[in-house]
Design goal:
- The structure is a single chain.
- This protein has 14 helices and 10 strands.
- It is of the alpha/beta class.
- The protein has a 10-stranded mixed β-sheet with strand order 4-3-5-6-2-1-7-8-10-9, with helices on both faces.
- Strand 3 and strand 4 form a beta hairpin.
Length: 418
Amino acid sequence: MRTLPHLAAVLAVSLPLAALASGGQPPAAPAGGAPCAPVKPCEVPAESAPAAAEAPAEFGAEAKLLYAVVSCSGAPLPRGVDAKVVAAFCAKQRPQIQAYRKGYLPKASAFLAGLRPAGLPTTVVYPFGGGDLLSALTTYPEARNVTTLSLEHAGDPRRLAAVKSAKTLAESLEVIRQTSAGLLTQNDSKTENLMKGQRGEIPGQLAFFLTALAVHGYEPVSLRFFRVEPDGTLHYLTPSDIAASEKETARLLRGQWVSPDFSPAFSNSELVFVKRGEDPKLHARVHRHIAADLSDGALAKNPGILKHLAAKGRFVAMTKAASYLLWRADFSGVRNVLLDRMVFMISDSTGMPPGFARKAGFVQDTYGTFAKSYLPASTAVNADFVKLWSSQPRRVLPVRYGYLDGEHHYHLLVTRKP
């Protein structure tokens, strides 16, 4: 692991590494468990493997550097970063961020708050979520433990500090601006934008995560990387683990995707964060991103992922703009874990098909209008959704949530236990 001694003082990590060595959580949580408010019991059992003899590699300084550069939040830039280039980027990026923060977020937050019953778990699972921590925090603002899963790898956080050319920095930031535009202004990330973030000097997924923190008033504390063991526990990568994989590049998880240009060590990330000004020892929250193909065939070769999700106990779920994968027979594993463990889900029509939901004891409430799927998908499931929407009174949906339907209507689905 390359170190950044010149950033140590400026970008000091607020949470002592010793407090994170047992699984990435603040002292208020059991070893390896989810961070919890001091007055609330943890909702999630231990998720991490026993601590290794060598301490996990910590990238909190790199996360804070990335945050200062990509979030346009006013965080101070360390020496060596071209402030003019960052200012030029933020002059274009800040209006996109403000469009979400001042336009979409207040409307969406007020509406979604009316959908959520009291007492929901604060653990969130978001399959097919891409870099969309932004929507996770909008949908479940009380979340303390968020897991997103998608084909995209988190990315190597070390490269930005090595960029010396103003031109290279400007080009890298322009990629981030372009690829984040859909999420910030249209509530959706296109596949081609997510693919672009798999290469270059600024890791696209991590940049999306850190932008989400800034929009919601959070800041990063710690960043580590892990692998999911076959039994579902997490092994946090050590400097030796990372060094051993430096000559490899992360593999494609689906054939049509652009190949990443960084080590597989940087596939799965754990980002600890707090509200600005809060004490990390008391108020830390955690976001984990797992790079995974969630089809049944792929999960049969990597069974630890479903075991990891099942070990979380009861959770809330969400999905949107997910290519209707939960409709398909070859995604039964992740669908079954959701049906077994979730107690509440907000989605667009790429969420849980009515037939599966009914059999598992859920009821579904529809909002907006659904006439047909946005992309070609199962005729039978389409018919089920049309029947579901037509059987209920039309409920107003004031904001877009994921895909439009095939006739460009806003629509949203709540799947809940009665």
